[in-house]
Amino acid sequence: MTALAFKVKSKNGQQILKDLTSDSTVGELKMFLSSISDVGIERVCVLCGYPPKPLDISNDHKKLSEIGLKTGETLIVEEKAVSSTGGSSKPPEQKPLENGIASHETLGPCRPGILMKKVVPSDNSCLFTSIGFVLNGNVDTSVHTLMRQIIAMEVASDLDTYNEAVLGKPNADYCAWIQQPSSWGGAIEVAILSRFYGLEMAVVDTLNAIINRFGEDKNYGQRVFLLFDGVHYDPLYLEQSDGGIQTIFPAEDLEIYHEAEQLAHEAKSSRQFTDLNKFTLKCMVCDKFLTGQVEAQKHAKETMHTNFGEV
């Protein structure tokens, strides 16, 4: 009897499983994986190997040694839809579209990878760093300079669309403001960069457990995902068991969209977001501490101070 240890990746992150041996059964493995991943035992789908392939865990009584599992393997746990027990060969009824995206019950088999968050610095340019990551696959905190220039040029070239009512300040003032490293990006900036790069940018809002899709009306062929907690942006990527990552996905990939939806709901239920009415900022000009977005905006209007840092 040999002790086994596995690296387990699931929607709950990465963990090490050390409680099994070569004589343990497939049923025991599924029980542990279900507990780690919060996926029901009947829905557990396991991938392993390079490239990762589905593992046959249909026979609960087989020993782990019989299905070829060895210590040190990486197990990727995904959730699969449970098929009907009625014995009918009729395909499942197509669920109606919601916000242009089909329900996950219509999706195909589990994918070889896990959607994960890449944490980027909280330096007032997190949106631009996050977009740079999904475009290039690495964290580069210098990309904000070019992106700010792209945004300023687009805004300056269209005075009718980007008027004071939309921008919250005169067009020229906004163009100067957005090019400052201390200025935060938001919906306007995401929309412009979505058009510039020709990608749909899906912002996973953990505060409201929704996904805001920028560029969805353009029928772009590819989509990227950004996670937004009310203040800070981080990019999302698919980590694969061979160490590679994927950050750009086909627009028709409904399964990855559903995984992003699940992240939003799970983050909200565990309160992994920032309440805009309660978070603390520091004015980097006068060192005053401010509570909430409204207070910060009031301070900016009264003092003309616009350089704020996260606390």
Automatic annotation (TrEMBL):
Recorded catalytic activity of this chain's protein: Thiol-dependent hydrolysis of ester, thioester, amide, peptide and isopeptide bonds formed by the C-terminal Gly of ubiquitin (a 76-residue protein attached to proteins as an intracellular targeting signal)
GO terms classed as biological process: endoplasmic reticulum unfolded protein response; ERAD pathway; protein deubiquitination
Keywords carried by this UniProt record: Cytoplasm, Hydrolase, Metal-binding, Protease, Thiol protease, Ubl conjugation pathway, Zinc, Zinc-finger
CC terms in the record's Gene Ontology section: cytosol; nucleus
InterPro entries found in the cross-reference section: OTU1_Ubl, OTU_dom, Papain-like_cys_pep_sf, Ubiquitin-like_domsf, Znf-C2H2_OTU1-like_C, Znf_C2H2_type
Stretches assigned to the OTU domain: 115-239
Subcellular location: Cytoplasm
GO molecular function: cysteine-type deubiquitinase activity; zinc ion binding
E.C. number(s) listed in UniProt: 3.4.19.12
KW Cytoplasm (keyword) present: yes
One protein family per Pfam: OTU1_UBXL
Superkingdom as given in the UniProt entry: Eukaryota
UniProt-listed SUPFAM superfamilies: Cysteine proteinases (SSF54001), Ubiquitin-like (SSF54236)
Major localization class: cytoplasm
Role of this protein: Hydrolase that can remove conjugated ubiquitin from proteins and may therefore play an important regulatory role at the level of protein turnover by preventing degradation.
Protein name: Ubiquitin thioesterase OTU
Upper lineage: Eukaryota, Metazoa, Ecdysozoa, Arthropoda, Hexapoda
Gene that this polypeptide is encoded by: LOC113500546
